[in-house]
Design brief:
707 residues; alpha+beta; Growth Hormone, Chain: A; 4-stranded mixed sheet; 4-stranded antiparallel sheet; 22 strands; 52% helix; elongated; glycoprotein; transmembrane
Amino acid sequence: MGMSVPKSCFGYPLSIFFIVVNEFCERFSYYGMRALLILYFQRFLGWNDNLGTAIYHTFVALCYLTPILGALIADSWLGKFKTIVSLSIVYTIGQVVIAVSSINDLTDFNHDGTPDSISVHVALSMIGLVLIALGTGGIKPCVSAFGGDQFEEGQEKQRNRFFSIFYLAINAGSLLSTIITPMLRVQVCGIHSKQACYPLAFGVPAALMAVSLIVFVIGSGMYKKVQPQGNIMSKVARCIGFAIKNRIRHRSKKFPKREHWLDWASEKYDERLISQIKMVTRVMFLYIPLPMFWALFDQQGSRWTLQATTMSGKIGIIEIQPDQMQTVNAILIVIMVPIVDAVVYPLIAKCGLNFTSLKKMTVGMFLASMAFVAAAIVQVEIDKTLPVFPKGNEVQIKVLNIGDSNMTVSFPGTTETYNQMSQPKDFMTFNVDNLSINISSTGSPVTPVTHNFESGHRHTLLVWAPSNYQVVKDGLNQKPEKGRNGIRFVNAFGESFNVTMDGEVYNNVSSHDASEYLFFSSGVKSFTINSPEISQQCGKEFKTSYLGFGSAFTYVITRKSDGCPEAKAFEDISPNTVSMALQIPQYFLLTCGEVVFSVTGLEFSYSQAPSNMKSVLQAGWLLTVAVGNIIVLIVAGAGQFSEQWAEYVLFAALLLVVCVIFAIMARFYTYINPAEVEAQFDKDDKEDYLEKSNPYAKLDSVSQTQM
């Protein structure tokens, strides 16, 4: 194709718009699928938490390792355009395969609503995931570099703006998909049995991926396509290897030193290649400290979401569930990228400060480290409100008197009297080894409590007559997960009954005993009590008080004088009081850090790379993200801190140290313009060529310039 003048729009090449739309659809497709994965693993494939999480993290890490592969294919074999098209096809197939794997009726031959051979579904979904990882990872470094290729020399400003718009598209896609995909999941569908519609929820991302591919191909005629230049990577590897070998061979004093270790390759390799490799190695060296930023950044999905589960989601009139806090990051990005780009940077420039790429990245790291300081402060506030649970060989005991006379219970060091159905004192903590408990009541002998208490747990002692008691192990030795509320029922009725609450059933709660806890989200719940003992004219419908986040209650069901049931609530764990709104400062700091760090990193990686290795450096940048993910897995696995805030402070300190090291490294980095360097080589090559073919040409040109 001849160089047609690229069509332009607002001073940007028109082809850019196709690339941005393509990226938006691709990210929507990827994040939409990813938002479902964990639930799909647990609920459809029936895996436990640990297996699901491990496979999920492996998949995410794989998506950041495959870019190396895509970059190699693009820079040395197919070129960026063909690589994007062919890998997008692989990607779309992967999305379709995983959608098919979630069709229940695929192997459900007896129509009972569960697949007959789950292994078919597992195999299909794993094949799908591998294809998706190949696709999404492979095109990642190519799409951003291909976008950068569309700009001419002298369009640096537009190109920088493009990387911002590109980043905006990534986040807009992920934001919309995290909102829309869960809505699709709750639809029901199926041929023979109706259930959660995974095929629809996986099918929409697959369709969007196809749209993304079509949009990209439509723009084909407008793109500026840079030809790949042979197998560049093996050349680079061979050249580096030769330089090192040659350097070792000439290590004695009598050989003159050379300016740069790569100059030792000059016997065998041309200077252009050596200078290109120098550009890449200098940037790669700068990348060594960067994974630490991503290690902090990626914790907003794990640690910060867990932190939100110990907070209250009631902000004004709206209620937020803990896992919805993550969308704050994407929302803030969509707001902050334009502000930083159009307001903050111009203001800094007006003040006469030269805010270079590497300075921006240093500031980004500093902001992220401050975000973790903020998270630690919030954590300290939360810790003040958390209940104390038994540790080591301690046990905690609480007494509920569900009889109709007063009871006196003596513990080591204290004796308490409990009126009928009185609100008990808080849990009392004792050492399991010297625990002796006696129950007495006026005019009756003392009954010792003989029970093997399990250390590290809370127990409830139910008493209803001087010699009748029951010890129940609570089973809750932490705040309920995901900000939900634990509810259990104690039966002070004569016979066993069933309770139905918000669709959950407590089966056969036997007399003078407690049920297990079941968990419910925030709000007011109603429950019904069913027992053959209850006469028809009794009211069976009851309502709970407003449930907040992370509380636990025991409802004691007693019989009133007219024989009808009555419910009385006792608080076991108080609801969370620290508002989730307090997480906004840390999200804000981290997002500002991300805007100045990540967008700049994409743009820096592009601008400092030689023309034949643009995708490779983008892949190097993505590799820092993968390594960051791995750091989190190692740190989280290795050290369990007794205090969560201490872990946050440790991470903040680590990033600060890395930030200082990076700042020092950046001081010694000199910016280059690869295009200029290459143009210089082209000019020299041309002159050499002319000189060889016509020795007088050189003199000729000299004499002309002198006239």
